[in-house]
Request: fold
Amino acid sequence: MKWNVREWLQRYGPAEILSVLATLGAAGVAYRLSGSYVSTALAGTWAGNVAYFGYILALDIWHTRRQLRAAGQLYTGRTLLRNLRALVVEFGLAEVFDSFLVRPALMYYLPRAVGSLAGGILLAKLLADVTFYVPAIISYELSKKRLRRFEK
Reply:
């Protein structure tokens, strides 16, 4: 597999920025409202996911529409399903493990361990991203030839 670090940064970088902001914002609000580390961990995890995957899906739709338009073809509901399938292949395994185990556990324990809500949430996010990106990038690279070609 070729190291496409620039491509990965362009694809994942803006999504990560949005995810960090959503994670910290939702975790802060959840903690202020509930005082519960469980609520804080879940709110931070899921808000970050919505921001991250919303951006990635919008980016994929935009690229696919542009690719199809250049070939004189339309973006259809079927094309959207192909975009979604490609995302499931890219992120599915990594996301299940990340969202239901690694990230919430780290976001629960690390703020207590470091003595700072924001610092612990940020550290948890960064550590969880390592276990997330290794399988996600491998899947992305493997899926590019089969699942990301949309013109006929």
Summary: The chain has a mean pLDDT of 92. The radius of gyration is 17 Å. The chain has four helices and no strands. Helices lie at 5-34, 37-70, 77-114, 117-147.
